[in-house]
Amino acid sequence: MNSIAVIGAGISGLACAARLKDAGLAPVVLDKGRNIGGRLATRNTRTGQQFDHSAQYIKANTDGFADVLRNAQEAGAVGPWQIQHGTRLVGTPGMRSLATYIGDGLDVRQNTKVSALRETAAGYDVTIDGAVETFDGVVSTVPAPQAIDLLEDGHPCIKELARVEFHPCLTLMVMVPADQAPPFTTLREPDQPLSWIALDSSKPGRTSRNCWVAQASPDWSRAHLELDADAMVEQMLDLFCARTGFDPATPVYASAHRWRYAAVSKPLGRPFLNANSKPLYFGGDWCLEARVEAAWLSGTAIAEDILQVHG
Ligand SMILES: Cc1cc2nc3c(=O)[nH]c(=O)nc-3n(C[C@H](O)[C@H](O)[C@H](O)COP(=O)(O)OP(=O)(O)OC[C@H]3O[C@@H](n4cnc5c(N)ncnc54)[C@H](O)[C@@H]3O)c2cc1C
């Protein structure tokens, strides 16, 4: 294949492109976001705070991903975070650092939105920011519901993509004044409206202080998904202060983020979906489970399949 487009610079897209590049191909990664990493994200505010507002820590259950994390740790992109229940690996100085590490040297185009994919005699026409480019092959790593939007009505993959379901997650980012002592480092309470609260700035390599992240449970997030930004902050801040004992009147900074497709609840059940005789693949964490490792496994499996079948 002379040209291949990978849609999405999250971990699955980056893992796929990195493996293809290692094998001598020249994939182009297209991502609508400002930064690399997708849902492995770090928010740097204009007023100087930093928050990991999506994935909180990274685990490896497979040898392949454990090798990636070991190498990333040696390179300083990952480090250990000490919490009450043991040690967790996190990106350093932010969760996004692991994406930057995996994506190093790749041709990634940020702020680049793909709106359509169409099979042609030559390959695939990809509509990118309104203009059409043709590629021999395409890998889409966007969440399954968003992949459907790229396809023509009646495309044979739509049926399986439509079976995949996600939980949303509303996330609060708060900086509290320095004189308010932290009651804990992390609190996981799956049955509470805020199912995870963490002193984000206690992770290694952070320069911010007193910065917290709180994530709402799937049920609470679904029930409050369409709140506007101010109402989301207000309601989540009240919940956060009720659990931590902080004074809701005094946050130095507070904002919220709506992850509409946060965590797959009904996955595809295999590492990827592919279509026609011409290479078109769909992957991402949603194929397997809602974890960074699953995204890496899916992207890597797609690359191996491309190399085996079309290489
Ligand atoms: C709140 C939250 C907490 C989480 N906590 C953890 C955790 O603690 N541990 C863990 O292992 N995992 C966690 N996860 C899950 C983890 O973040 C994901 O499994 C992983 O990052 C998904 O990677 P991905 O590449 O499959 O998808 P994504 O990271 O979503 O990448 C898809 C990319 O596609 C881009 N894109 C979408 N549409 C288009 C388009 N039309 N054109 C161009 N680009 C497009 C997006 O900008 C994005 O960058 C969490 C996720 C969330 C949201």
Describe what you observe in this structure.
The chain is α+β, with helices and mostly antiparallel strands. The protein has 2 domains: 4-42 and 59-164 and 267-309, FAD/NAD(P)-binding domain (3-Layer(bba) Sandwich), CATH 3.50.50; 166-265, Alpha-Beta Complex (Polyamine Oxidase, Chain A, domain 2). Helix content is 27%, strand content 29%. It contains 8 helices and 18 strands. It has a 6-stranded mixed beta sheet with strand order 7-2-1-11-18-17, with helices on one face. A 5-stranded antiparallel beta sheet has the order 13-14-15-12-16. β8 and β9 (124-128) form a beta hairpin. It is globular and about 65 Å long. The model has no long low-confidence stretch (mean pLDDT 96). Bound molecules: flavin-adenine dinucleotide. Flavin-adenine dinucleotide binds next to α1, β12, β16 and α8.
Spell out the blueprint of helices and strands.
Blueprint: E1 4-7, H1 11-22, E2 28-30, E3 43-44, E4 50-51, H2 63-74, E5 78-83, E6 86-91, H3 96-102, E7 107-109, E8 114-119, E9 124-128, E10 131-135, E11 137-140, H4 144-150, H5 158-163, E12 165-175, E13 186-188, E14 194-199, E15 211-216, H6 218-223, H7 229-244, E16 253-266, E17 273-274, E18 280-282, H8 292-309
Parallel strand pairs: 1-2, 1-11, 2-7, 11-18
Antiparallel strand pairs: 3-4, 5-6, 8-9, 9-10, 12-15, 12-16, 13-14, 14-15, 17-18
Helix pairs in contact: 1-8
Flavin-adenine dinucleotide binds at residues 7-13, 30-33, 38-40, 54-58, 113-114, 141-143, 146, 169, 171, 215, 259, 262-263, 284-285, 290-292, 294-295.
Short description:
With about 300 residues, the protein is an alpha+beta fold.
